[in-house]
């Protein structure tokens, strides 16, 4: 029998297939630290080539792992058992744009921001905006059902996907649409992290650009007070387009790098965006400013123009990258709680970090209750490495206790699969496994992801839970 | 076998079971579990006895699926009405699947919140039934579909277990998004017992504009309604359906929601656009009047008991909705249509569809013209297939059914491709 790599070469040729270890090194890891060389990688031009490779992998009993830009923080793109990596670097085109009906058909390798940029002059945009949007791909976003700061009012990726094309484990190509009768396969595939099918095309919904956008910054004494203000805003029935908090540590790192105009001496800053009809902008801002002041805002400032707004956003979206300036290493956690629990959970996170003697930075989608505590440590210190892993697990447990969950937008991937059993019962997981069984009975697509490995260890993987702080120039890759 | 406290047919008369008949079948047994555990127990009992179960909420959309091939037990969700978790400050609500949509809206309205489910007969329709039927209404263009607002669900499965997915948080990628699978599954995968939603702050002002027009103004009316800068949350072009936003003539119906300033500007823009199209008269309804009139439009999508009309829904592109509806009316003179200019939905109703001698069936004609169309309601004797042509992905769908319900306990034969 011809070996796997040779068969791929024969079928697809050297332009598509990579088998040299040097070439494969870039597919061995994502923004999580686990790494393992695959046996081969392909950079296909279309779904047909994906299908051919998947068929060969199946015959050779090799697993298949799809890959976007590799910005995932939970090891979702790590080829943990080797096999074949499918990179969508070449399938990065906008295939069709229907301005009138606000729809677009795209290939999975299209970079998120490139889509919105390409269509902006037509007055529409693609709403899901993970902070990695400058380099992460729409296909990868579909895999994790990625969120972003603007999900507060627009919803996450799944709310903007109208249909998919995917390759199944037999290498067959299928099309789904949320308008088709039958089970909503589109909805199930989005967020399945490549475990059910390999998405080769995506039809997305676009939104009309708002008439008016205001971005404001409020300073607070500390994160808990800022969180109380956020809870109060949501509690008052106001849903701005974004409500983001950064604590003092993050704000200082961000300002040192970007000079965007955040108040550097504040204990916490709240970034608020109001977008919508021009008629509501002034009244909306006044109302938000009033609630913020009533809940401890020390200052409130509106960006004067588009340049200033963009600078504030660029700094916010580059926050984790900017941490490279001050942190030897850091570990970003992702969890979500009901919004009224924000002040309480922030208090607990602070206490947990102190218990483990770890500095913590907080930069998060406060309006959604979506937390991203960032634990700072030095990986050369074994004690600190252990502390980070334990503190991370403790934070997840705390969020679950408060009625929350262990991932808001990054996914479960390789990192959190054992923790999934803290949230769901065996019966809950069995229902999910039913779906896996139908689409991938051999567990050939992205093995070792999402589902617990069997024995529940209740511990975040020590090897994987920690990683180097990325250099600041790669900020977009690692920002929550 | 059935959990203690569950009401069975023994307490009921035969006549009450007739109310749950579907097609030619009337169930032999009625169960009405009090909670999730009892629901799961009832399904397990049915499975062990080899019985087929149809889950029943308010019954308003039961005709939007084929009649079951077997039907022994009707499982009513009407006692699953608990408010499990509602802190208005979280803008989320978790309620029992048997709660009526109207009751849920009343609960939310006390805190100036709402859930844009847009169902016909909201007083009878249940939250779980709305989801199971995959219902989507006109306001989804502005607020998203019910599936997009669902953040968590608990479902009793055919094997008698309870499976929860999602949670009470608004962003959640913890495990597969199983809620999507149950929404629109017409009770073939499980009985939804609890639903968690992201809810929305209620708009300060709600205004319905009704603009009847003469035939010669149609094209201009549609063009102007499509070109509004400030988009209403729903824009419908209604032909026939005299009971919906009542009028005798064809009419544009637009729903405006938002702050007073936004709704006022929207009204001005709408009036000026319609005026430019030559439509002089636009009737405006505010507040409860607007809500009632909008509900009358939604009610038109589904027939009342005893009606024999056939109503079909075809999805498509918003830019083509008006023309598609027109094509149907040209082919079927008696056809009444609603063209949803924002979502692209086309709703077609034909009263007494079986009246013609030897003429092709109405559903066949509509499907020939519009492509895929599903039945929203039909008379008890209707032979129209609810789904029409099955999608190309039928094979994984069949496998999902076999995996979740290998014995065919749940609603056998009701769904796409005989699932």
Key features of this structure:
heterodimer; A: 480 residues; alpha+beta; five-stranded antiparallel beta sheet; 20 strands; globular; disordered C terminus; B: 419 residues; eight-stranded antiparallel beta sheet; 13 helices; 28% helix
Annotate the secondary structure layout:
The complex is a heterodimer of chains A (about 475) and B (about 425).
Chain A: H1 4-12, E1 17-18, H2 21-24, E2 40-42, H3 47-59, E3 64-67, E4 84-87, E5 94-98, E6 103-106, H4 112-119, E7 124-125, H5 138-144, H6 151-154, E8 161-167, E9 173-177, H7 185-189, E10 198-205, E11 207-208, E12 212-220, H8 223-235, E13 242-247, H9 248-258, E14 268-276, H10 278-294, E15 299-302, H11 306-317, H12 319-322, E16 329-332, E17 335-336, H13 342-355, E18 360-364, E19 370-371, E20 373-377, H14 382-401, H15 420-423, H16 426-439, H17 475-478
Parallel strand pairs in A: 2-4, 3-4
Antiparallel strand pairs in A: 1-2, 5-6, 6-10, 7-11, 8-9, 8-10, 12-14, 12-15, 13-14, 13-18, 16-20, 17-19, 18-20
Helix pairs in contact in A: 1-3, 8-10, 8-13, 9-11, 13-14
Chain B: H1 14-18, E1 29-31, H2 36-49, E2 53-56, E3 73-76, E4 83-87, E5 92-96, H3 101-109, E6 113-114, H4 127-132, H5 140-143, H6 146-149, E7 150-157, E8 162-166, H7 178-182, E9 190-198, E10 200-201, E11 205-212, H8 218-226, E12 234-239, E13 251-258, H9 260-276, E14 283-286, H10 287-299, E15 310-314, H11 321-331, E16 336-340, E17 346-350, H12 362-370, E18 374-377, H13 394-404
Parallel strand pairs in B: 1-3, 2-3
Antiparallel strand pairs in B: 4-5, 5-9, 6-10, 7-8, 7-9, 11-13, 11-14, 12-13, 12-16, 15-17, 15-18, 16-17
Describe this structure in words.
Chain A is α+β, with helices and mostly antiparallel strands and 480 residues long. Chain A contains 17 helices and 20 strands. Chain A has a seven-stranded antiparallel beta sheet with strand order 15-12-14-13-18-20-16, sandwiched between helices. In chain A, a hairpin with a 5-residue loop joins strand 8 and strand 9 (173-177). In chain A, helix 1 (4-12) runs antiparallel to helix 3. Mean pLDDT of chain A is 92; it is low at 455-480. By secondary structure, chain B is of the alpha+beta class. Chain B is built from 13 helices and 18 strands. An eight-stranded antiparallel beta sheet of chain B has the order 14-11-13-12-16-17-15-18, sandwiched between helices. Chain B has a five-stranded antiparallel beta sheet with strand order 4-5-9-7-8. Chains A and B meet through strand 9, helix 7, helix 8, helix 10 and helix 16 of A and strand 8, helix 7, strand 10, helix 9 and helix 13 of B.
